[in-house]
Request: fold
Amino acid sequence: MADAAVIIPHYNDVTRLLRCLAALAPQLDERVDVLVVDNGSTDSLAPVRAACPDLRIVIETRKGAANARNRGVAETTAPRLFFLDSDCLPASDWLATAFRVAPSADLVGGAVHVFDETPPPRSGAQAFEAVFAFDFRTYIEKKGFSGTGNLLTRRDVFTDVGEFVAGLSEDMDWCHRARAKGYRLTYAEDLQVGHPSRGDWPTLARKWRRLTTEMFGVNGRGASARLKWALKALAMPVSILAHAPKVMRHPALNGVAERRAALGTLARLRLTRMVWMLRQVAGLGI
Reply:
């Protein structure tokens, strides 16, 4: 029996999945069981099967990464569970680091660094993501959750906490449930993966539409929860001014053009999210 199962949900992103698997391949040994859970892709998986003939792939037809991850856990038996996303690029020492840091806590989240898949200059979406995307240290140390694109835990913890819940911000919800049961979450800077930045406004907006929908599910639907959500929505314009200095000082951005593009995207996204959130409060959906 393997010591750890690496569970990778996938949907219609074969090129990035192949890149992820190619980065993992030199790190694998008999301790590790890698499982790709395809979420009913319409794109052919033939290139994946050809490149990785020994890879185990299962199909989960219920939509959502939460269902795919739950299926991955059910299809494996290893005592340790290492969650990784198909569009992530694990560092060359990711597995070695995972085995080293996994015993340090019940849940361990790592670092996610943004990289661009297109040459410079950055678009507004890319510049925005360079500043704001995937701040896992803040998520873990201040907000009490880790994203599941780079998360380690144990099977006994997962069994006790229960499955990921589809339709919510499943990583936030699951980590909060785990911490409520007394399990400890920690951040491991050395556990590193890369993630491609969103390249344009439609892609970035699609990401945040999904996140806004999921976060509203975690927020709750009662009167007090809706009031809290409305107040968060109305604070969005203020957050533009609060975060503008971070954009202007951020070392990842190059030159005035990228900073201007990031500021424009920041303002556009926060105002758009305000409208979405107020529609949610009103029961109109987004």
